[in-house]
Amino acid sequence: MLPTEELRAVWGPPCQFRKATITLHSGARLTVDARAVEAFQAIDWVMESFGYAPRAKETGAYHCRKVSDEEGLYSMHSYGIAADYNWGTNPYGAELQTDMPAGMVTAIKGIRTASGERVFKWGGDYSGKKDPTHFEVGIAPDDLVAGVNVVDVAPGDAAGVALASPATKIEAYRDAPLEQAESAYGPPPRRRIKIFAFDPMLGRRRQHRITIEVPYEELRPGPHGELISVVDHDTKTGRTYRPVDLDDRTLALNDGLDPLVDDPRFHQQMVYGVCMKVVENVERALGRLLHFDRPLIVLPHAFEGENAFFERKTHSLSFGYFHADPDSPGQNMPGELVFTCLSQDVVAHEMTHAIVNMLRPHYNEPSNKDVFAFHEAIADIVAIFQHFTFPGVLRRAIQDSRGQLGRSGPLVQLAQQFGQATGSGAALRAVGEEGRPPDRSLYEKLHEPHDLGSILVSAVFEAFFDTYEGRIADLLRIATGGSGMLGEGFLHPDLVNRIADEAADTAQMVLTACLRAFEYLPPVDVTFGDFLRAIVTADREANPDDPFGLRANIAEAFLAHGIYPRDTVSLSPESLVWPVATRADSEHRLARLDPDLVHRLLELDAAAWGAERSADGAEEAQAEYEPYSAKLEVIQKDDQLRRYAEENYHLLRLHPDLPIDVEGLHSILHIDANGQPRREIVCQFTQVDGAADAKRRGGMPERGGTTVIFASDGRPRYVIPKPLPHDELDPLTRHAAEARLAATHAFVAACDRRDPMLAWAGADYAAHRMARRFNFAMVHHAIPPRDASP
Amino acid sequence: MSVRVRMYNVGFGDAYLLTFPSGAKALVDCGSIKAGAAGSMTDLVDQIVDDLAAEGAPPRLDVVVATHRHKDHVGGFSRDRWSEVEVGEVWLSWIEDPTDDAARGLQARQRGFAASLGRALVGMHGGDGLAAAAMGVDEVEARLEELADGLGMQADGAQQPQALAALMALNALSNERAMRTLHAGFAGGPARRFLARQAAPLDQNVLPGVTVHVLGPDTREEVMKKMDPPAGKSFFRAAAAGAGAGEAVLPFGRFELDEAQLADHPHLTLAPQLVETLRGLTDEEALLAATGIDSAVNNTSVMLMFEVGDAHLLFPGDAQWGPWEVNMEQGSATRALLEKTTFYKIGHHGSHNATPVEFAEEILPDGFIATASVAEHGRFTEIPEHDLMEMLRGRPGARVLRSDDPPAGLDGVTINPKSVDIVVPT
After folding, report:
1. What is the pLDDT of residues A416-425, one digit of tens each?
2. Which of A295-299, A767-771, B286-290, B419-423 has the lowest mean pLDDT?
3. Helix or strand or coil: residue B83?
4. At A431, is the pLDDT very low, low, confident or very high (cuts 50, 70, 90)?
5. Average pLDDT over residues A240-265
6. What is the per-residue pLDDT for B392?
7. Angle at which helices B137-150 and B161-172 cross, to 10°
8. Residue B382 and residue A759: Cβ atoms within 8 Å?
9. Is the pLDDT of residue B282 over 80?
């Protein structure tokens, strides 16, 4: 056995070596140095013989990390020669605590090279603190070249399993090709995937079958990636369909399967592609990578039914399939099979729900009538704006409409096939009705989340159209010799291309503003008015000059739809921006966050940038290896953020007597007015008043909270509070806080009046009734018929 | 002078006999889905007819009101003894008018929905969706009764959603026999009247000295919408398909993975919890459909206010929020009328959503009498709703009683073996 320093020397450099991933008998996966594959396979064979199963979530090998900053030393995991198995049941500590059979450990330690040298060291043998989860190669790579053997096994050791010919088994491993060895050319930056631009009904036309690009990640059959795992299982019939392997050479070279309704593998491919497109759009807008705590399970054929939903508890997307209405199928065949997973819009909508759930988990509590409507609206906005990222589709729409992108046409309608197949005779939803001015009073009247959400969608698109028209006015003047009046006939392709660029750019700008607004939203109890303020603030930060007047267009469009914040004096964009936290002249100055803490957080986030995505990352996400967990550790160990919140509770509008939770924490990056990159920290503090009347709130906890944005020097920039009422608040804020809780009570009462379930469904339903009513499966199911006539 | 209200203890259901100062009699509903301590529905019908016979031969009712077509309101009319009773007029919801096209369409949808729901539930449990789909309504009814009785509580002590759904589907089945009596089964060949909400009092002479206000059901479209069964027909197809033990709907057979192939993709194994949760949503859907149709039928309720001098007796059937909302509109004549209520038949056996909080707290004047005709059901633990009953009891001068447990010694209240008499002064 070599001492650690020597091991570093003979295996190094850390993190840069040819990696190989092996799948263990339990399905868990390890990434190790390709030269040590056989040795680790020998461990797995021993474990299998002893019936010992490494759990995927508690098992891992390669991870690039330093053990000590001072000396710049890397852990042995960084060299791909150490693996940890089931750390949950083999904890690190002074006492040896392990669930590994002694015979098995002996056998693993008995794995020897051809020359009889032992290969592994076991952490359980350490003289100081014991680390029984840990096995580490203790010899040089050259010694492993001749292969390994399992030697030190007494015949009776392996619980009834005969260890007759270990060599054969090892031989088999040796001949198997290395799984997913790294390409000599490195990974490609993008993956190309064929999809239906809208759905199979519109996809009968060739121009609506397109190829999109999404960020590349290594995929296992499914597709199974870091964020998304497609599992084609039908929960009703119990059938599972063959998974598509997008990393297969043929498919990789052909941008996947051709759009085909008859092949479930194309469905899996399209669902994956559309979901990842949403991920990309959101990541672009937010300027950071998204991470789920666990992969999102996507079931493209989950059940028969006119429904699709995000289910929070199981972190899954379920898509239904159904037969088109036999009497009113629209442009479908009567009885045609309709797959919601083949609708770009339905998939993008549901995926957005999952992402919003991650960004603001408390928006799953319908604490006022806007909350779920906001969820639905954002999902529709993302789904529809995604159409504008399909260049061919966009150019055709511009040619067809002669540049007058209005409120009709496939570009701005949602789920056409679904809507028609369910007998409504129209798309499921659209961004508004052509030629009908918005009705300001509608916002007050509506309750159903999709209907109410449609108002927000319509407002956002009005702002989009206004801005777009402003941006192409000069193009039209140039193309028409100054008149701006287009003549008869086709538009010149050059003009179409230029208009399409403007449309796509404007769409991206508005979508970015809508998504960036999330950084400036309170952690709980959102309203449309909050969203207006957040969007204006976000856009001012990202786009200080506003050359196209987007912010004024947004404010006007929202007002025209009856949406305005109840707490500002004016609708000018300057008044809508959230108040800036620190003013030099203020007596009550909010303290800075310790710049050291800010730097550590920024460093941890920076480490994640540019890192490669892979399915293995997700499996290790809950482990100590993940930067995100490291970040949480920083917060938890030092508790600095919590202490900061406690010390500054008054100016953060937090309740002095309730515990404070630090929930969201991440950095964002944008370019400031001087063209300089600016990095900021967004932090969310929340509180729960456990003494609140849960019955009156329909089972929802009474939450308050504050979002705070810090500059990179720790200076607070924005404080966006949703306080719980308490005595120390100034009278105005306190009044608003009380009104907020009253609004929750009123909303719960309004739902109670309309809910026939409550009378019948028993005490358990009554106690959790808001959650039961507002799970996405049920909300989506209760889509009211568009056409009321029989 | 006074109106006597006799509330029969039918269990979970309604049967109210009103005797007006002129001696004219009206029966509002007669049905039950669970017998109370006073005996079976047949016993109660015997009692009612005997009570009528004791006051004159032949037994006579000037008016029979059937508020809506739910078993707990009309089931008793299926008994034979009604042919002995002479009736002046039968008042029904306009939904029952066989000559009204809109009514027929709406009723067909409601009945069709209830029957489909029943078949789906039977299919989901019997395991044979195709057989269930071909069942006649009578057989569906029998099977639903078995289902509702057979399903116990869930392991965690919560209600079994399918049992609840089965009970509600039962309640909403067509009740054909009872409806035949109402349309043509009484002695004396009574005229039928189909009532709809109207501004002027009902033009009638069978109840002399009584002004009858019809507050529901509405014929306006926005209120009618609440009488339509829920959308989402595919639920029934899905339920039936699921019952056919994996009947292949999708033409993907050749892509199916068998156990051995599945083992090659361990990362595609789903957590059992996920599959369970998704399956459980079907049960929840069934219950959602059942409560939806229940509420739709409740909203067809005839909603009456009988006015005799100062006495204002409100019988809202089981109307839910939609119809109430219309009548409580600020500044309206109907709201002014509701503010005079002296006797209130608590809607829907005391459930939370058939008595608006605003009505109970603000509109009802002090000193009213309110009755809930109800029995402990076992399944429907939230009916009557405790908070609502307490809120009513807490009002100044209020007298609130339940048919299954009337308090002794309440002023103006007499307890009979199978009924309670309440005197409402005019």
Report:
1. 888 887 766 7
2. B286-290
3. helix
4. confident
5. 93
6. 94
7. 150
8. yes
9. no
In this prediction, residue B96 carries a pLDDT of 92
- Within 248-267 of A, beta carbons closer than 8 Å to B belong to 262-265
Compute the C-alpha angle A179/A181/A182, nearest 5°: 150
Count of CB atoms situated within 10 Å of the CB of B157: 9
Q: Which residue of B has its CA nearest to A23?
A: B266
d(CA B280, CA B282) in angstroms, rounded, equals 5
| CB distance B183 to B107 below 8 Å | no
Please state the three-class secondary structure of A300-343 as a single string. Answer: EEEEECCCEEEECCCCEEEEEEEECCCCCCCCCCCCCEEEHHHC
Taking the C-alpha atoms of residue A219 and residue A226, their distance in angstroms, rounded to an integer, is 8
Q: Which of A179-183, A623-627, B160-164, B304-308 is predicted with the least confidence, judged by mean pLDDT?
A: A623-627
Instruction: Report CB contact under 8 Å: B109, A790.
Output: yes
> Tell me: the pLDDT tens digits for B110-125?
888 888 788 878 877 7
CA A94 to chain centre: 39
A165 CB-contact burial (10 Å; exposed 0-12 / middle 13-18 / buried 19+): exposed
Which chain A residues contact residue B265 at CB under 8 A?
221-222, 243
| Interface mutation vs chain A, best among B288, B358, B377, most A CBs within 10 Å | B288
Binary contact (A790, B357; C-beta < 8 A): no
ipTM above 0.90, yes or no: no
For residue A434, is pLDDT > 50?
A: yes
Nearest to A221 among B265, B277, B352 (CB): B265
- Partners of A327 on chain B (C-beta within 8 Å) are none
Per the CB < 8 A criterion, the answer to whether A690 and A710 are in contact is no
Strands B25-28 and B16-19: antiparallel
Residue A621's pLDDT is what? 38
**Max CA-CA distance within chain A?**
95
Bridge partner list, A706: A685, A721
Which residue in A has a C-alpha nearest to residue B158's C-alpha?
Answer: A764
Residue A182 pLDDT > 60, yes or no?
no
Contact call for B382 and A316, based on CB within 8 A: no
Q: Model pTM?
A: 0.78
> Smallest CA–CA separation between A543 and chain B, in Å?
43
Does the distance separating the beta carbons of A754 and B321 come in below 8 Å?
A: yes
* Helix (H/G/I), strand (E/B), else coil: B418: coil
Q: How many CB pairs under 8 A join A and B?
A: 188
Nearest to B225 among A233, A297, A788 (CB): A788
Contact B291 A313 (CB under 8 A): no
Q: Calculate ∠ Cα A530-A656-A746, nearest 5°.
A: 45
Answer yes or no: is pLDDT of A784 > 50: no
The C-alpha atoms of residue A39 and residue B359 are separated, in whole angstroms, by 78
Residue A281 has pLDDT above 80, yes or no: yes
| Cβ contact B353–A302 (<8 Å) | no
Q: Which of B404, B400, B402 is CA-nearest to residue B390? A: B400
* A396-404 CB contacts, 8 Å cutoff, 24+ apart: A396/A207, A398/A491, A398/A496, A398/A499, A398/A500, A398/A503, A399/A490, A399/A491, A399/A496, A402/A486, A402/A491, A403/A472, A403/A476, A403/A486, A403/A491, A403/A495, A403/A499
Angle between helices B101-126 and B137-150 (to 10 degrees): 50
* B348 close contact with A: CB closer than 8 A: yes
Instruction: Select from A760, A781, A786 the residue whose CB has the most chain B CBs within 10 Å, as the one to mutate to test that interface.
Output: A760
Subunit contact B265:A243, Cβ cutoff 8 A: yes
Within 581-620 of A, beta carbons closer than 8 Å to B belong to 615
Q: pLDDT tens digits, residue range B345-376?
A: 999 999 888 898 889 999 999 999 999 999 88
Give the C-alpha separation, A511 to A476, whole Å: 25
